[in-house]
Amino acid sequence: MVSIPGLKPASRSASPSAERRTERLTGWGRTAPTTATVLHTADLDVIAEAVRTAGPRGVIARGLGRSYGDPAQNAGGLVVDTSALDRIHDVDVDAAVADVDAGCSLDKLLRAVVPHGLWVPVLPGTRQVTVGGAIGADIHGGNHHTQGTFTRHVLSMDLLTADGQIRTLTPDGPERELFLATTAGMGLTGIVLRAKIRLDRVETSYFIADVEQATDFDDMLERLQHNDENYTYSKTWFDSVTKGQHMGRGFLLRGSSAKLSDLPPELRKDPLKFDAPQLATFPDVFPPGMLNTLTAKALNEVYYRKSKTKSGVVQNITQFYHLLDLFADWNRAYGPRGFLQYQFVVPFERADLLRASMEAIVDSGHISALNVLKRFGDGNDAPLSFPQRGYTLAVDLPVKKGLDQLCDLLDEMVLDAGGRLYLAKDSRTTADRFARMYPELPAWRRVRDAVDPERKFVSDQARRLRLVTG
């Protein structure tokens, strides 16, 4: 076994200090703020005791706060900040396995493993997500059709349960059901403390990409259906502001990890350099309505014009995958009222809903400047895991009058098409609709209630959607 030099396992009480503070919390969309007592510590004994003695409002874990809605909030209760649990205990280079604390961000993990020719197999649209959050939401990326979700690559996880005990779960072990219930369980089965992740091997830290412009939404969908299986990564951006014959114009960005032979001579000198700087932090000064029809049209025009059709383009991770990570706190650009990201998946045979939903958004007068369409491969056995075989569409909508009616309409359209919403993005749907979208919810509740019969683990989202009952 060859490990990365300089990585030393943390002691069980890596940081004996603990602090409790009353804090106002929101999700990344900055909507529906609530106040909770937040426990900041890396001491596992302190965390375990806090769970055992949780009051009537219960407890939930919180990582870097990148879920868009309310799954990491617990009004009037306890929230455990796991960000101090961020140690990389070991990386076995030969076996391509990382052993990390659940509070470690994907950004930190990538920076540690990429120089050794290793890669995190599944990444969402930002690297500022913890390993525990990636498990709790069962995140996906632009390569779901080839790599599945994040937990497909989790070899084991340590879960702190309601009785204060730590259980080691594996996907095929005696507690497989609890592993699957924790997968996409949004922290409601316990607190993930540590995990072993299987990594991919790469020759470079770059991507080789093809860009295709699409003149309208139908052209976009036709291009997406063609040849997608020949790319490891695939996603599209489209314009949901422009009306008429060019409605839905945009581009496809598809590619794979670049090989050494793909790189120009200047990049071959350091092919595993992980160059992903942060350029700026958005100030919290933007007024409501900053994103309107005029500004959105201008942004869409610039973005569309600069994305010319080309093939074999070498791009770094920021250019190809994480453009928004260039700017810290970019969610502030939506102003103090915040925004919601609406993401759904529908079966391939109901592709008609994609255009219909886009038309509903355009006709409503609501604006979305960030729109992504992707294809999913097969789903997994986790009852609450979001991806299923089909198309997934995500739009960012600033909060303003009438948005709730639009989203209610979209919910019913998605349900009629046999689709569902993503828990990590949801901030406003109803319990009845969610139960109709996830028919395996009763099976998940059975496992969850068995491991937490006193219902200690609970969140604002869990109350809103009645995920935790009794």
UniProtKB/TrEMBL annotation:
InterPro entries: ALO_C, FAD-bd_PCMH, FAD-bd_PCMH-like_sf, FAD-bd_PCMH_sub2, FAD_lactone_oxidase-like, Oxid_FAD_bind_N. It comes from Kineococcus mangrovi. This is FAD-binding protein. Keywords: Oxidoreductase. It comes from the Bacteria. The keyword Secreted does not apply. Residues 31-202 form the FAD-binding PCMH-type domain. Coiled coil: none annotated. Residues 1-31 are annotated as: Disordered. Pfam families: ALO, FAD_binding_4.
